[in-house]
Design brief:
The chain is α/β, with parallel strands linked by helices and 271 residues long. The protein has one domain: 3-Layer(aba) Sandwich (Rossmann fold). The chain is globular. It binds adenosine-5'-triphosphate (ATP) and magnesium ion.
């Protein structure tokens, strides 16, 4: 199976550099032989069927799962390095479902992103308050600063969690299915925001989603991951479903295997 690798035309060190990565979970190989370079300002979508290893890959980038083989460097450091700490913002699907029992305001949640070992006890730090204000404005949540997060919609919660990442000054933002459970208008606003963060703030974004139509519309680059990278290229050159089957070595479009794959992808990806 071939993967199409985006040409490495940029000179600076990649924000993420993955080489020959293989990760096991419960003794079994879940992803293998992954090679990927992501540069500053890139907006990359990772798509693929359920169980294909997308979340496993993100958790590996975050340094939460150990590689069986290969390496991951973030900002030219091992992902476990303390120099990487604070440079990565993580937005999980669970962000839209924050427990209703947690009684904190949007502003307090975002302020948590500015806590570091150095400033933990300096409650009146003006720099931190400024970062919080700026982050809230960037995601359009300044009007809800004093709202309890339990009263927000799913889309608003996602934006608040993104603001927390921005307040921490994260340069790399990693999102795992942030579009699940939010309405169309919130989804569009969120995608516009992420696009702006790449274009205007130079943030680097990696986002897992099943919403292929939204990914096609917004991101610059698409990676199709199923155990390994099956496609990596510009969004507008991403193949249609028949092309995908072909890419995965299922050349007979009428075979049971191809039909079953196509329906699995179709079910899981909203075209
Ligand atoms: N904690 C775990 N222990 C063992 N195996 C796991 C664990 N979590 C996931 N897996 C397995 O790893 C494989 C990849 O799972 P992963 O969650 O990374 O896929 P995914 O592409 O994110 O799927 P989805 O689209 O459903 O979120 C699956 O076969 C899954 O059963
Ligand atoms: Mg997942």
């Amino acid at each position: 199976m071939e993967s199409v690798v985006v040409q490495d035309s940029k000179q600076e060190a990649p924000v993420i550099h993955v080489e020959d990565l293989t990760v096991f979970r419960s003794g079994k190989s879940v992803i293998h032989d992954i090679n990927l370079k992501v540069f500053k300002g890139d907006f990359v979508a990772i798509v693929g069927p359920n169980g294909g290893g997308k979340s496993t890959f993100l958790l590996s980038i975050l340094g939460l799962l150990r590689a069986q083989k290969g390496s991951i460097r973030i900002f030219d450091q091992p992902s476990s390095s303390k120099h990487v700490f604070g440079k990565i913002g993580w937005v999980s699907q669970a962000a839209a479902h924050l427990s209703k029992d947690v009684k904190i305001t949007v502003q307090e949640l975002v302020r948590l992103g500015t806590v570091s070992v150095q400033n933990m006890f300096s409650f009146l730090d003006n720099g931190r308050s400024e970062s919080v204000q700026k982050a809230l404005q960037m995601v359009g949540m300044d009007c809800c600063a004093d709202c309890n997060i339990a009263h927000l919609s799913g889309g608003q919660r996602q934006r608040a969690v993104i603001a927390r990442a921005l307040a921490s000054n994260a340069e790399l933002i990693i999102l795992d299915e942030p579009l699940v459970g939010i309405d169309r208008a919130s989804k569009n606003a969120l995608l516009k925001l992420l696009n702006r963060l790449c274009q205007e703030e130079g943030k680097t974004i990696i986002m897992v989603s099943h919403d292929l139509a939204a990914m096609r519309q917004t991101t610059h680059r698409l990676v199709f991951l199923e155990e390994t990278i099956q496609f990596d290229g510009k969004t507008d050159s991403f193949p249609d479903l028949a092309g995908l089957a072909d890419l995965r070595g299922l050349n007979d479009a009428q075979s049971d295997e191809t039909q079953s794959l196509m329906s699995r992808i179709r079910d899981k990806m909203v075209e």
